[in-house]
Amino acid sequence: VQLVDTEAPSDPVISSISSGTAISKAELQAGVTISGTSEANATIHLSFGDETRVTTASGTSWQYVLTKADLKLMGEGSETLSVTALDAYGNESAATEQVLTIDSVAPVMSTFALTTASDTGIANDRKTADDTPDVTLTAENGSAISYRLGDSGGFSDLVDTATGLVVTATGSEQALTLPTLSEGANTVYLKVSDAAGNEAVRSSVIRVDTTDPTLSSAAITAATGAQNTYLNAGDVVTVSVVLTERAWIDTTGGSPQLSLVIGDSTVIADYVSGSTTNTLTFSYTIIDGQTDSDGI
């Protein structure tokens, strides 16, 4: 008796792809496991491009590992994987297709820096008086952004405080608000992750200083025109003020001034120089009629 079977087996089912349909560089290196179900003990053909790989179902379950070599043959971008089942009589099912996208390229990511508004004090010195500063970053559109403070531990999603949503890159320069930083030096890491799971990381040390500088000392360091320690009208007094730390002087809204007491009067000395240092210099020109028996 010769058995005849001309009926095609049922179409195989792809039930699991270990990487998902988007395959990252790390997943390409490790290989991707495809598994599914079919008619019992069917021969499974997996085809992509001009290539075909074969495995045999164990019962109704089948599995095949697409190796690094297989995935490299697919190339970067999208590739259609076609799966068919052959029964013992050589009948072949219709194809079940699945598009796989190989993206083994790390997302584009710029370095990041304090925004102009958050870059208080000296420009581009990575120091700020803002403990929740904004930074600018450009990264691949749609990439998720996460952060880490310090050199150890895991990354946390960067969340928009206004919307409560995880921040994603726009593909253009954008401002990001960092979580609260500690006083002093903070090593900040930002990571962007694309849809395939590829990652890029950048880091920067941002110093936070929310303490105002204070006066350490003040002294007359020059007196142009003085004779025998006496000053006359038209003579110029130079006063040096030493602060506890360097100070950046913003003269946009006016320059700082220093009060001097001459006799019973308080006069104003004008700022001369010293921005970005811890020593500021002021000057005052003596006018006619001023007297002070015990000195300025």
What does this structure look like?
Strand 15 and strand 16 form a beta hairpin. The protein is built from two helices and 21 strands. The protein is mainly beta and 296 residues long. The strands form five sheets. It has a five-stranded mixed β-sheet with strand order 2-8-7-4-5. A five-stranded mixed β-sheet has the order 10-16-15-12-13, with no helix packed on it.
Write the layout of secondary structure elements.
Blueprint: E1 13-17, E2 22-23, H1 25-30, E3 32-37, E4 43-48, E5 51-56, E6 61-66, H2 68-74, E7 77-86, E8 96-102, E9 113-114, E10 127-128, E11 134-137, E12 144-149, E13 156-157, E14 174-177, E15 184-193, E16 199-208, E17 215-224, E18 236-247, E19 257-262, E20 265-273, E21 277-285
Parallel strand pairs: 2-8, 10-16
Antiparallel strand pairs: 1-3, 3-6, 4-5, 4-7, 7-8, 9-11, 11-14, 12-13, 12-15, 15-16, 17-18, 18-21, 19-20, 20-21
How many distinct helices?
2
| Cα shape | rod-shaped
Total beta-strand segments: 21
Percent in helix: under 10%
Report a brief summary of the structure.
This protein has 2 helices and 21 strands.
